[in-house]
Design a protein that fits this description.
18 helices, single chain, 3 domains, five-stranded mixed β-sheet, Diaminopimelate Epimerase, Chain A, domain 1, inorganic pyrophosphatase (n-terminal core), OB fold (Dihydrolipoamide Acetyltransferase, E2P), five-stranded parallel β-sheet, alpha/beta
Length: about 550
């Protein structure tokens, strides 16, 4: 682990502070940092109501999709929702199956097996679905790059509507409709919807056409889980989707989610975006990583208490297995990276690396070393890789430059995946390393820690924390407010965790003593001096029914360094 680059955001100008009223200078600074220039923007951001929604018919091909879907509903066609095996894909699948079934549709789900089929639309699966009587497939969270597969589907009389949010290629599949806010010709005002978000917009368009849009309310919980799980920016329409979804999750969680929360020791009523990130999403993902994602889908859809209980217990066990497996693979991948020497692009590969956790391991490597990282399952003939990157390096653009070597690839600037012939692997690794070396030359490869403002601990008392919660839900694009305090006295410090990987401190400033924790800061224990400068968040620690405010330390250095 390395210390971060600290970047204190510019102070709000006096003219800005004078233009808004009713907020303390600290809260006003937080609003300014989030790009909210006008009082009307602030009001819209804080209320996060339906005004943030876009018209679904502004999405490309939405009219064609609704017309084809309406035809399928009227004539009783067999409709298949073809999803991805991650939490975004699972929730998007459940959302459309449930929503369209309520309209009388004959709808079934199909989620491919991560290990035996891989990501995205597959020709073999589409042919099988056609043989079983399907005439319309709606993809969710996948399909935008499936040119050959959709050509084949068209030949065998299978219509495909693609709903996706991944980056399109130059060549588009010949689908009946391609609904994707990232299309170059999209007129939709918000491009950062997830797979579940795009699926919700399709359902909204259908329901609006039928005068039944009120039925959409039941699906916001699924859209919220998918949006947070896929780490999409919690700005614009995503704020509305997540806020509405959290309201539903807290007031009336569906049976399967309630059982998941019980197993995890959480209760409805106190859930926030972090509850999705750290509790619901990992458990939903665990099924697809180690077995079949249909188990997570079934848990979301079941109305049987017995089935919900059994599936939630099974998922809890799978998640524990996933955690152990991730730790083992991370240890091996880390050893390999260190043995080869830290290069601009970290690559670890092995025949026994399981695809189900390789993305998690790549993410851990990228976080620890602050370098883009690829973890590869090397097979005899076919290999597959999971990529995680840093803001300074666009991994999907790098893969695009290597597309002649790849069988399939897709993803985002910060997360992607690919498959290729193993014989092409050495050339791919060399080319990607050359690209990374060129693009990252001269770049300071330390994580940049954006800090909202420098303040003293005494400024954070009173109702400051409660007021800050009005900016929630927090996540990517709207991070938890981050502060810098200098010259803080260290009252006590000890390591925490089985390997001493965390720190627990008591700190004091202006006679006020605060509890603090520094997760994954154990390597920095030698930097703990009588006074420190520290960067931190405020968080509510709930323990044995009591709630106390504490500091979550993100980084620190000896004072006056």
């Amino acid at each position: 682990m390395k210390h971060s680059r600290w970047h204190v955001l510019p102070p709000a100008p006096d003219s800005y502070l004078a233009n808004i009223s009713g907020f303390s200078p600290l809260i006003a600074q937080l609003l300014y940092n989030r790009g909210l220039a006008e009082p009307s923007q602030i009001e819209s951001f804080l209320t996060a109501d339906g005004r943030l929604q876009g018209d679904p018919f502004l999405l490309p091909d939405m009219h064609q999709a609704v017309a084809r879907l309406y035809q399928a509903l009227l004539s009783g066609e067999n409709i298949v929702i073809y999803g991805d095996f991650d939490a975004d894909g699972i929730t998007a699948t459940a959302l459309l199956v449930q929503g369209l079934t309520r309209l009388g549709g004959k709808v079934t789900p199909y989620i491919p097996h991560r290990l035996t089929e891989g990501y995205g639309l597959k020709t073999a699966a589409l042919e099988k679905l056609r043989q079983q009587g399907a005439s319309l497939v709606i993809s969710v969270d996948c399909g935008i790059t499936a040119v050959a597969e959709i050509k084949r589907a068209k030949k065998i009389g299978l219509d495909v509507i693609v709903t996706d949010h991944h980056t399109p290629l130059d060549v588009m599949p010949p689908a009946t409709a391609l609904i994707n806010p990232k299309r170059a010709d999209s007129a939709y005002p918000f491009s950062e919807l997830t797979g579940a978000g795009v699926a919700l917009k399709l359902l909204q368009a259908v329901l609006r056409s039928l005068g039944k849009e009120e039925q959409l309310e039941d699906q916001f919980d699924l859209a919220a889980v998918g949006t947070v799980a896929d780490m999409s920016p919690l700005l614009g329409e995503n704020r509305y989707l997540v806020k509405q979804g959290l309201r539903r999750l807290n007031s009336a969680p569906r049976l399967g989610i309630r059982e998941m929360l019980t197993r995890a020791g959480l209760t409805a009523g106190q859930l926030d975006a972090e509850s999705i990130s750290w509790t619901l999403a990992p458990r939903l993902n665990a099924a697809g990583r180690l077995a079949h994602a249909m188990s997570s889908y079934n848990l979301l859809m079941t109305e049987s208490p017995q089935e919900a209980q059994g599936l939630s217990i099974w998922l809890e066990q799978k998640n524990a297995e996933r955690q152990k497996l991730t730790s083992r693979v991370l240890e091996k991948a880390r050893e390999q990276v260190l043995a080869e020497g830290i290069s601009p692009l970290l690559i670890a590969s092995h025949q026994e690396f399981p695809p189900g956790v390789n993305g998690l391991v790549a993410g851990r490597l990228a976080e620890e070393f602050y370098h883009p990282a690829i973890v590869i399952k090397r097979g005899h003939e076919i290999s597959s890789g999971s990529c995680r990157s840093i803001p300074e390096f666009n991994i999907i653009q790098a893969l695009d430059q290597c597309r002649r070597l790849l069988s399939h690839y897709g993803g985002h600037s910060q997360a992607a995946g690919f498959t290729l012939l193993t014989k092409n692997l050495p050339q791919l690794q060399n080319t990607l390393r050359q690209i990374a070396t060129s693009e990252l030359e001269g770049v300071d490869l330390r994580a940049r820690l954006n800090i909202d403002t420098e303040t003293t601990l005494s400024n954070l008392g009173g109702d400051t924390f409660q007021t800050m919660q009005k900016l929630a839900p927090f996540g990517r694009g709207n991070p938890v407010p981050t502060f810098l305090s200098r010259g803080v006295e260290t009252v006590s410090c000890r390591s925490m965790g089985s390997k001493g990987e965390h720190l627990r401190l008591k700190v004091r400033q202006n006679s006020k003593v605060w509890d603090a924790v520094g997760f994954r800061c154990g390597d920095f224990i030698s930097d703990v001096t009588p006074t420190i400068d520290m960067v931190y968040n405020l968080e509510l620690d709930r323990w044995q029914g009591a709630e106390t405010l504490r500091l979550n330390i993100l980084d620190f250095v000896p004072a006056n360094q």
